[in-house]
Amino acid sequence: MSGVAIEVAAAPRRRRDAIWLALPGLLFLAAFLVLPSLGLLSLSLTDDDTGAWTLHAYQRALGVPVYTRIISNTFWIALQVTVLCLLIAYPLAYWLARLPARRQRIMALLVLLPLWTSALVKNFAWLVLLGRNGIFAEALRALGMEAPPDLLFNRATVIFAMTHSMVPLAAVSMLSVMTQLDPRLTQAAGTLGASRVTAFWRVYLPLSMPGVASAGLLVFIGGLGYFITPALLGSPRETMMGQAIINQVQQMDNLVFASALSALLIAAALASCLVYDRVFGLSRMTGGGSQSRSARSLIRRTGLWLTRVASTLFGALSEVSAGLLGGHRFAWLLTAYAVVVIAVLVLPILALIPMAFTSAEFMSFPPPGFSLRWFEEYMNSPVWTSATLRSFGIGAATAVVTMTLATLAAFGLARSASRLTPFAFLLFMTPMVIPSIVVGVALFQLFARLGLIATDLGIMLGHVVHAMPIAFVIVLATLKSHDWRLDQAAATLGANRPRVFCRVTMPLIRGGLVAGLIFAFLSSFEELTVALFIGGGLRSTLPKQMWDDVILQVSPLLVAASVVVIVVVTALFMLAELLRPKAGRRA
Amino acid sequence: MNADAQIRMTAATEQEGRSAKLSLNGLAKQYGSVHALRPMDLNVATGEFLTVLGPSGSGKTTLLQLIAGLAEPTAGRLLIDGQDHTWTPAHKRSIGVVFQNYALFPHMTVRENAAFPLEMRRVPRGELERRVAAALEMVGLSTLRDRFPTELSGGQQQRVALARCFVYQPALILMDEPLGALDRKLRETMQIEIKRLHRDTGATIIFVTHDQEEALAMSDRICLMNHGRIEQLGTPQEIYEHPATLFAADFIGISNVLHGRFGPAGLETADGTLALPPGTAGSGEAALTIRPEHVELRPDGALRGRVTESVYAGSEFRLVVTLGSGATLVVRRSSGQAVPHLGEEAALGWAPERARLLFS
């Protein structure tokens, strides 16, 4: 051994925790979500003229009958929509969860497609279909009913259309929990003596409750900030807070009052999150880890008691009905129900397509003849083409920026052992639980000071905030399903870090990254609220242009524009679904 | 088969059916064109511990699901205590099932899990509490009664699953690879535990495993399955000492197999002609198996080869001898006996009656 220099390897530097990779994204959200929200709060507490602290705006919001009615309207409608969504979506999700994998994917697509079709298009479809010359009125006339009943501009229609808009979101939230339930648990309940009905109430339902709760949370918060449906399909009596905020900003120029209303929305959203957290723990929704449950907690005991009562009640009912109907199972009833719900979700969107090819001057159904004139008009209109191009441009920029920030963050958080991880996680998910109208107003007052109003950059920054959670979740899910031992294996086989990344990591997660890009693009492409506030009158995106037009009149040109949106969304959505790595599809 | 014989056979099965806890008559399950379980006849006696052994895909789990009522058969009948239960739904069979990954209800505590089957049977409160306490006591979990399953170790979860099963005293218990997820030491402890529960309760247990050692150690009888049918049914000793087929011999862990054709002097293999065991004969192809402990190193042995592996295993040496054709034989030598070195020539032989002639 003598003469051989023994190389002493330099002691490796302590490796920094990977969480610093999340820093760019965290700073971005701090700058464009947290700070402007705090700015909004302080603005709502200032006097417009003197700049002194005051509660005047809140006194007005909670004291003047016009506004108290709007506020109670908003909560009441959001609550009704939430309950309806949960009731309608649960059997649908239950049905989907029990389908064989292949059919489940196809059927889930039919639910996801309306989820990704913008609320504007869906509500516009109802406006067209339920209008005086729409399909329903025509159908009723054909049935011999003379005066078509008032289908539009009432509360029932608003609630129906909002529910229609958000059932897919509720169903998808529930489905993600239900598909992870171990089917052997209900089987086990069966072998232990529980009938199917009892097994459902005592085992399946309690275990699927986290999905129900997160669905409820997302729908309720979404409903609070809704303005499209009441504006398009409601009467003044259905005015909601979102509309009031837009009105205050755009017509009244009263940013202080708009801030106060927004602050109330934030407070409501945060309160619902707290309730949710008390019952289920926010970590459930975000997929995080720790659970601290107590076997004796009141909520848990109440829940168990309720499921027990329900199971006894429905067990008895099903025994009676089985006795009456010779033990026939009602499986077909559930299938029929699910098919009807999916049809109602998809049909209004599809129904728009033939109407875009009408030769008529005005909307009518059925279209009197085939013509491409409205598409020609769309293509020849500088307003529409520039809005379309801007939407594509901003969408592409949003996708790239969002995915850069989200991918770095997801890498960081997936590999970090830091105790800060859950907080970083929460911040990335926050845009999902803050009504987008609030984000719009918050950014408006920030960008007004930065001179970013009516700029493409301003819209893009807002869209990045909006698209962040979905991009982050997709990348994180991809990374979580990635087997890091493969990277270690590649390293032991002699690949250095860049080569491990290029040859092993990247090819395996590429599908997820592309899907993330597409969904970030779609989020931006369909976003209306931010564009409404930041775009001003000059920089119209496609949804903003449609919104401006639809407020004025319903024309076949708008239908043609909607069809363009539907085609773009459907094509990209299908592409993303094809590329997305399928869980459990391992060779 | 003539009518008379048919009647006699039916009578015989019915006779058996009455004395048996569980009888399968031609029970089968087919998925499309795939035979998950070919028509099977099996009787399990009351109080018996029967192990269903086989490689994955051999139909073990299908068999278990059919018995439990979690899958419906495409043919045949299933009798429990002589009563036809072919179409009885799972929750009315009163069969205890211990699932592969326990299937404990994650939203219920240990106590609530164990109480569930009693609640389903509407057992009065006081008796329920007493029986749950006794069941948890039996598996040594009394102190963990208010924990949730996710807060328990694998072995503790396994005990909860056993308590939840034994608490309602089912007369027939199915266990689907219940020890598969445990490490070796814990597995041996739980094997003893399950044997004890079997003895104490007198329950009939059907235990599925793919581990032949586990099967040999625990069972009254082993039902060896392959390709959806019974390959061999017998006591552990019968199966180990008298495997009926090459598959049985191989699966039970006998590695010394020499293939050949019948010739005038015995079985003609690539490495020489081997004497047939006394009283056997046949034509065409067959194979001889010989257990490692019966292979002797002796100069007049019929087979010659070279020692290619020598493993010291405490009480013995295990030698691998590679024959001219490339076939290998394992030989056991007690420690202390002379052992040839690696690479040396060795001549092998055995008393003909020690070998078994098998047809594939």
From TrEMBL, chain A:
Q: Which Pfam families match?
A: BPD_transp_1
Topology in the membrane? Multi-pass membrane protein
* TM annotation in the entry: 21-45, 75-97, 109-131, 211-234, 255-277, 305-325, 332-357, 392-413, 425-447, 459-479, 554-576
| Keyword set, alphabetical order | Cell membrane, Membrane, Transmembrane, Transmembrane helix, Transport
Q: What is its main location?
A: membrane
**Where is it localised?**
Cell membrane
Span of domain ABC transmembrane type-1: 71-276, 388-576
Query: Does Chloroplast show up as a keyword for this record?
Result: no
Cited CDD domains: TM_PBP2
Is Repeat tagged as a keyword? no
Please state which protein family the record places this protein in. Answer: Belongs to the binding-protein-dependent transport system permease family. CysTW subfamily.
Record's protein name: ABC transporter permease subunit
Species the sequence originates in? Roseomonas alba
Automatic annotation (TrEMBL), chain B:
Task: Read off the PROSITE patterns from this record.
Answer: ABC_TRANSPORTER_1, ABC_TRANSPORTER_2
On whether Ubl conjugation is a keyword of this UniProt record, the answer is no
| Keyword tags | ATP-binding, Nucleotide-binding, Transport
Gene3D superfamilies tied to this protein? 2.40.50.100, P-loop containing nucleotide triphosphate hydrolases
Keyword field contains Membrane: no
| Pfam families named in the record | ABC_tran, TOBE_2
Which branch of life, at top level? Bacteria
Q: Give residue ranges for domain ABC transporter.
A: 22-252
Could you give a GO molecular-function term held by this entry?
A: ATP binding
UniProt-listed InterPro entries: AAA+_ATPase, ABC_SmlMolc_Importer, ABC_transporter-like_ATP-bd, ABC_transporter-like_CS, Mo/tungstate-bd_C_term_dom, P-loop_NTPase, Transp-assoc_OB_typ2
Quote the protein name from its UniProt record: ABC transporter ATP-binding protein
Supply the source organism for this entry: Roseomonas alba
